[in-house]
Amino acid sequence: MKTKTLLRKPASIAKTRWATYAAAGAATALVGSNAAEAAIHYSGILNVHFPADRNRRVTFPLDQPGDSFFFAHTNASCKEALFAINGIVSAAFGRSGPFVTPFVSKLSFGQNISAGEFSTRSYGIMAIDRLCYTYGAPWNDPGTGYVGFRFNNGAGTQYGWARVTAAGEFEGGNAFRVEAYAYADPGERIRAGQRSSTGEQPPDEGSLGWLALGAAGLLAWRKSRSLTARLEDA
User: Could you tell me if residue 210 is inside a domain?
Assistant: First the structure.
């Protein structure tokens, strides 16, 4: 009896059932993807560099023409790093300090974008040489943080973030790198660094999702995770 048990053929799943699993899983993945994209829009990894020895301004588009923000670096004696947000109806950015020309806040990963104080000035200072300004700006020190902003194109208030790594004032000349950004649809909450309104976990192992997505789906998920790692560890 033991020999017969060991030689017994393993149970197999009919091809038609595999096809059903695949179709159901693909449909589920597509619906989930569209739902996430409709809520929070992520730029992907950009890594746009603003060197210390150059004047440079780069505009980044948002949801439609007229909605955008820009970063700039000035190669003057003050070595300023600037940020501005432009919207069809109104726009603002997270501010720091009670100054006439507001400093741009340096947020940490996971902070609620909408919870902070916002400035409606046309632009704000990220970093500036301390010889030119009494107070030190939040981005004068080296490191990575997030700029929070909001805008309104007439459909409702939207929030977003941009991930920035600063070289620092003294050694880096206030050079910086814009690595990525994201913004949410009207009414959708977003936190600094958040790229999707749904979690990024893969389907539970052994579930219908795993059976349907198979090796190709798993590879795609691993690639998305590798992008996340490069963004967060850059």
Answer: no
Conformational region of residue 193, where left means phi above 0, alpha means psi within -120 to 50, and beta covers everything else:
left
Mark out the alpha helices in 11-162 (DSSP H runs).
15-39
pTM score, two decimals? Answer: 0.68
- Classify residue 197: in a domain, yes or no: no
Range of the domain at 164: 44-184
Scanning 8-109, the segments in alpha helix (DSSP H) are 15-39
Per the structure, how many domains does the chain have? 1
Residue 36 lies in a domain: no
- Is 112 inside any structural domain? yes
pLDDT tens for residues 187-217?
899 999 999 987 543 343 343 443 444 444 4
Q: In what helix (H) or strand (E) does residue 57 lie, and over which residues does it extend?
A: strand 56-61
Closest by CA position to 126, among listed 178, 62, 188: 178
Q: CA distances (Å), 140 to each of 93, 116, 118, 212, in order?
A: 18, 20, 20, 50
CA distance 98 to 79: 22
